[in-house]
From TrEMBL:
Annotated Gene Ontology cellular component terms: synaptonemal complex
GO MF terms, alphabetically ordered: ubiquitin protein ligase activity
Keyword annotations: Coiled coil
Coiled coil stretches, renumbered: 30-110
One BP term from GO: reciprocal meiotic recombination
Keyword presence, NADP: no
Designated name of the protein: E3 ubiquitin-protein ligase
Recorded superkingdom: Eukaryota
């Protein structure tokens, strides 16, 4: 409506400008869409690369986990086998232990029974049955006579030595060799005979007389008396 009454050249010029403006606008829109397309394609490529990397890492992790799972399954099978073997060994040991326990109980019962029988037999039977018998032959009278003569000779020699040393027989703590050798003569003379005089005389030595130890001197500790008051002095004074 605004172009009414205008010459055709002006109308054609305005129409040409309008068409050119529209074409420019379309070019700008196309360029914008191309640029956005490039950006989106780059983003898609990056996302694809990231996805591929993550997939490769996930595949590696899954492969490692599969290997670990296989090894753990193999170990579990080995452990099951070991457990079955240990159970068999334990059952065998338990059977052996039960047998040994039965044997032990039976032996213990037998021992207890035999011990009770022995005790009952000792109680009921006379005492001479269980006493050990002396199978040695009886000593002859000549041996005892020789022992007595040897003891007398030893006593005489010992008394002479004590007399030379100046020790009385009553006050000296040393006992005569006859007393020391009586125990040996009573048990060993039957088998080995009496000891020789030279050996006994050389072995017997007089003991040194040790003086008795005197008790320690008692320390005198003076007792501190309580001081007397004047009243006590008055009471103590003679009336």
């Amino acid at each position: 409506m605004s172009l009414c009454g205008l010459p055709p050249d002006v109308i054609f010029e305005s129409a040409r400008n309008a068409v050119q403006f529209w074409v420019n606008q379309k070019d700008v829109e196309i360029k914008y869409h191309k640029h956005s397309y490039k950006e989106l394609s780059n983003r898609v490529d990056q996302m694809q690369n990231n996805m591929n990397e993550q997939l490769s890492q996930a595949n590696l992790i899954t492969s490692q986990l599969n290997k670990k799972l296989q090894t753990s399954e193999h170990e579990c099978e080995n452990l099951k086998k070991d457990l079955s073997e240990l159970q068999e060994k334990y059952s065998e040991k338990a059977r052996e232990k039960a047998k040994l326990q039965e044997l032990y109980t039976s032996l213990k019962k037998k021992y207890d029974q035999s011990y009770r029988d022995n005790v009952n037999a000792r109680i009921t039977s006379p005492k001479s049955v269980f006493e050990p018998k002396d199978t040695r032959p009886p000593p002859s009278a000549t041996l005892f006579a020789k022992d007595r003569s040897m003891n007398r000779q030893q006593n005489n020699v010992f008394n002479q030595q004590m007399f030379h040393l100046g020790i009385n027989e009553d006050s000296s703590p040393i006992k005569s060799p006859s007393f020391l050798n009586n125990s040996l003569n009573s048990s060993n003379n039957v088998l080995f005979g009496p000891p020789s005089l030279s050996n006994t005389v050389n072995k017997v030595k007089p003991r040194q007389l040790i003086p008795p130890q005197l008790p320690p001197r008692l320390m005198y500790t003076p007792v501190l008396k309580r001081p007397m008051s004047p009243r006590m002095m008055m009471n103590k004074s003679p009336r």
